[in-house]
Design a protein that fits this description.
With about 150 residues, the chain is mainly α. Helices cover about 45% and strands about 5% of the residues. The protein has a two-stranded antiparallel sheet. Helix 5 crosses helix 7.
Length: about 150
């Protein structure tokens, strides 16, 4: 569908035509260029992809996610797998509060939210410093020995 198909005999557009395309009356400056750009984008994306994008954008609040049974269970499994030690600086409880960190941030990779291979144990300071901009994986090969020790000494 193109706006050019709706031109009147005088070469203009009616209020009804503009309303059909979501344009207010009187039309704002540059409306035709913006509309053509929007319509060309829509033509490139099939309707199914639009729906998928909308579904992907619907967010579950952080509170809902971190209070879910699935997250709590996975968090526990991460502590069993990696031990009770910060994999970045080596801090341990009770001196440090430990967090289960998403290596690839939830905001950028929501599909990895409940993937145990995307989790690492960091202290609060390291986790807050890392934020969601850094994707450093602090897990190492030697970690398995440490995790075995801490696994049985909880």
């Amino acid at each position: 569908m193109d706006i050019e198909d709706y031109k009147t005999s005088k070469g203009g557009y009616t209020k009804a035509t503009l309303a059909k395309f979501g344009i207010s009356w009187p039309p704002p400056r540059g409306w035709k260029k913006r509309l053509k750009k929007q319509l060309s984008k829509e033509a490139k994306q099939p309707a199914l992809q639009k729906v998928e994008k909308k579904v992907a954008k619907t967010k579950v609040s952080k509170n809902q996610f971190y209070n879910s049974w699935e997250w709590k269970k996975l968090r526990y499994e991460a502590f069993l797998k990696h031990g009770r030690i910060c994999l970045c600086c080596g801090a341990r409880p009770p001196e440090a509060v430990l967090h289960v960190d998403h290596i690839k941030p939830l905001k950028k990779y929501p599909e990895l939210a409940l993937d145990i291979n995307n989790l690492q144990i960091l202290c609060r300071s390291c986790n807050m410093g890392k934020s969601n901009i850094d994707e450093t994986d602090w897990r190492q090969e030697e970690e398995t020995e440490a995790s075995e020790f801490w696994r049985y000494n909880l």
